[in-house]
Amino acid sequence: MADIEALLGEPWVLSPSVALRPEPFGALAYHFGNRKLTFLKRPELVAVVRALGEQPDVRTALRATGVPEAEHRAYAEALLGLAAADMIRPRGVAA
Amino acid sequence: MTIAPERPARPTNGSLVDQFELGLDAPICLTWELTYACNLECAHCLSSSGRRDPRELTTEQCEAVIDELQRMQVFYVNIGGGEPTIRPDFWHLLEYAVEHQVGVKFSTNGVRITPERARFLASTDYVDVQISLDGATSEVNDYVRGAGSYDMALNALQNLQDAGFLDAKISVVCTRQNIGQLDEFKVLADLFGATLRLTRLRPSGRGADVWDELHPLPEQQRVLYDWLMANGEDVLTGDSFFHLAAFGESLPGLNLCGAGRVVCLIDPVGDVYACPFAIHEQFLAGNLLADGGFQEVWQRSELFTQLRSPQTGGACASCQFYDSCRGGCMAAKFFTGLPLDGPDPECVQGYGETALLAERSIPAPSQDHSKANATRNQPIMLQLLTRPPISDCAESPLAGYEPGAPPGGCCS
Amino acid sequence: MAAHPQDTHEDDTEPVVEELVVEDLIEEVSIDGMCGVY
After folding, report:
1. What is the predicted ipTM?
2. Is the pLDDT of residue B356 over 80?
3. What is the pTM of this model?
4. B238 and C29: CB-CB below 8 Å?
5. Spatial distance between the Cα atoms of B286 and B72, rounded to a whole number of angstroms
6. Per-residue pLDDT at B410
7. Interatomic CA distance for residues B100 and B62, integer angstroms
8. Is the minimum CB–CB distance between B98 and chain C shorter than 8 Å?
């Protein structure tokens, strides 16, 4: 719970060694460093991930992309999953 | 190459596996056999390698393929052969791929992994090395891979470890003879700081000739499944045992046949096949030189479009385990002469054994790149299969009789 | 005739609000987790 609250207020960004490849159902994210492959199953999530680097924090990125408030928790959990695989990083962290 | 008509729009919901079965705009990763030349003559070689094909892609043509893979955002290519490091331009192509955002894993028997090359590899990121090994002892390994091949593989692993290369892979094809060595394989992997990879033997290439003798027995499949369930957390399988899902719980992986949907093979002359275990005209989608490039073949060949259309279970559809095993391996069925819409020859429910008893004809290989004359690397298994016939002029009534030897020739 | 007290005339199926779960959004797979690459 605390993780989600913290995440929502922080600035994040796509990791530099991640390739994001669009697919009909969303996108594939591949991390060249740790070889992990993650499926982003909704185009909205892909848009959020792309927007992260430009928005002051995750919550703003979710709103700017049009994700309903009721879904913010699920999206934040998904972002935590991406963070665990180093697909996204807190902004300001050295590579 | 026949071009398929316009693809129907696909539904956007459904599970990931459902989506994958309908295919992707680019493979996620693919196998690329750089050459049919090889210093070894493994008895079960899936590509029947040994002799270089004179039509092999040139260095420039290979670079063009890499450029295209980059444009398509193919993340990863698994380079093999034959023995890929035998190509003089191998190390150049390796660097070229990495510089063009295509990760590389290459499969090798270790012949060129010297301490110097190992140091080079340790200094390079985005490259994985996979050493082939089919026995935890030289006795078991060399029987199918040839005298000295065990030592060569372990030497390569040692060089990699000494050079500080992290996480090499040891890739094992599971056979009747090595399933009893699973724990020892794990010990070897731990010893070299490597990750163990176990994969399935398919009756492909020269594998068709030795499959009867080498493929695991039904009870051994159970042993393998149990071992993977107990120890498999840090063991890779390349999802090659999805047919074992019918034992109960699925093993990690997508549990589907990736042929023509998420993976494919580019062979040394630019032919594109659905799968490296299906090198046969029936699974040839086109040629990237003759048919407008790899992307064109991947996205528009008729074969791949057929493979990406919804598959019915055929004879397997009424089996309660169909959802988890998906009818097993297409290549295994094809090369044992079984219908593709029926059970896998190693179906764990036993339907495959029954099917094998019926009338079937094993397809003749489309091609054979095996060496014309045996070298000193020829494994004992192949020597036994290719014994010269007894002369009609032999005088002794016992000429050619060896007590305990298998009857007849190969394919018994 | 009196209705049985346990009879109900209500429709048993309420509209189901499908909550979005993280599995609907992401799924991780090993690059080695697909068959057809040796």
Report:
1. 0.89
2. yes
3. 0.89
4. no
5. 18
6. 41
7. 13
8. no
